[in-house]
């Protein structure tokens, strides 16, 4: 199935919220959180948000990055259940990793639920290492977060080519 990535826009918030509530019933973001994140997703802003769409335009995944100075943070990454296991998580995560490198981040951090082994395995395959635990990070479920980090080699634009 062909999926393409494009920047998330304000009119994507409703379909994204449908997925958000289905995928993260215990700790879903609010519409307001997406609005404020997207307000910073402009050239020169600190956010980068992407949606993955099928050929008919249906949103089947999304991901967001915060980049401040040399530190990047994976804000969210989500894949529709019906498309999990097909490599879409990898596509979205790769987009965030490449964008954080372009923005000059020396490291990329993320939080993942300690009980979400599938996501942890995805991050490990991309070189993320566990660096700590945040107790009770996910509320109201009171689930701990594993903090993982990817160290970027210094970004050199001439090394970067699409091949």
UniProtKB/TrEMBL annotation:
CDD domains: NAT_SF. Residues 3-153 form the N-acetyltransferase domain. One of its GO terms (molecular function) is protein-N-terminal-alanine acetyltransferase activity. It is an enzyme of class 2 (transferase). Its EC number is 2.3.1.266. Transmembrane segments: none annotated. Keywords: Acyltransferase, Ribonucleoprotein, Ribosomal protein, Transferase. InterPro entries: AcTrfase_RimI/Ard1, Acyl_CoA_acyltransferase, Bact_Acetyltransf, GNAT_dom. Pfam families: Acetyltransf_1. The keyword Signal does not apply. One of its GO terms (cellular component) is ribosome. It comes from the Bacteria. PANTHER family: AMINOALKYLPHOSPHONATE N-ACETYLTRANSFERASE-RELATED, AMINOALKYLPHOSPHONATE N-ACETYLTRANSFERASE-RELATED-RELATED. This is Ribosomal protein S18-alanine N-acetyltransferase. It comes from Kitasatospora camelliae. The gene is rimI.
């Amino acid at each position: 199935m062909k999926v393409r990535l494009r920047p998330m826009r304000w009119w994507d918030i409703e379909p994204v919220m449908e997925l958000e509530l289905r995928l993260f019933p215990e700790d879903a973001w609010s519409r307001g959180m997406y609005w404020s994140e997207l307000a910073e997703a402009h050239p020169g802003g600190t956010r980068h948000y992407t949606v993955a769409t099928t050929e008919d335009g249906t949103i089947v995944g999304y991901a967001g990055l915060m980049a401040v100075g040399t530190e990047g943070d994976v804000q969210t990454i989500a894949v529709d259940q019906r498309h999990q296991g097909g490599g879409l998580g990898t596509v979205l995560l790769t987009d965030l990793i490449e964008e954080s490198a372009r923005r000059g981040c020396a490291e990329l951090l993320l939080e993942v639920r300690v009980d979400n082994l599938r996501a942890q395995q995805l991050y490990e395959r991309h070189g993320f290492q566990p660096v700590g635990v945040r107790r009770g990070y996910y509320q109201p479920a009171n689930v701990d977060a594993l903090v993982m980090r990817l160290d970027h080699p210094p970004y050199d634009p001439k090394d970067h080519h699409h091949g």
